[in-house]
Amino acid sequence: MLNAYHTSEPALQIEVISPKIQGVGSKRYVEYTVKMKTTLPVFNSTESTVQRRYSDFEWLHKELEQADTKIVVPSLPNKAWQRQLPFRKDEGLFQEDFIEERRRGLETFINKIAAHPLAQNERSLHAFLLEPEIDLSQYTRGKVKH
Can you supply one Gene Ontology CC term for this chain's record (predicted)? Predict the structure, then answer.
């Protein structure tokens, strides 16, 4: 039998795809589809697809930084404050090239985290990848129980 941790394909693959602008006016935001496939037994599902926005990635980053682990959390793509200024001659945060650049950065971020064996046991990563909505009233920081 093949060991899930020693296969030719990565045991955990994550794609950040299909960015869509949601909302109107000052309430606009970009939502990304996050698709996960895994053979790792620590996850209770082998595939999942969830919708996440930049603030959800920020939440995961903060949770992992505050967790009692030895994980060096990679940086997120920057917040792009200058793109949020009024009176721009372009779409700012909603420019297609910026959205694509951020999508690639978010995909790199989540894959670096997911590749770390200690992060794979963190509840925050499981909630981020598997829960349709991250429900903070039900969430507690810590390790996943096997």
Answer: early endosome membrane
Give the Cα separation of 146 and 124 in Å (integer): 15
User: For the domain 12-130, what is the CATH code?
Assistant: 3.30.1520.10
Q: Could you tell me what percentage of the chain is helix, strand and coil, using 3-state DSSP and rounding each to the nearest 5?
A: 35, 20, 45
pTM: 0.83
DSSP string, 61-99: HHHHHHSSS---PPPPPP--GGGG-TT-SS-GGG-HHHH
**pLDDT averaged per 10 residues, the chain (length 146):** 53 94 86 96 94 95 85 82 50 76 95 91 94 83 72
In the structure encoding, which two tokens stand for residue 146, read together?
A: 């096997």
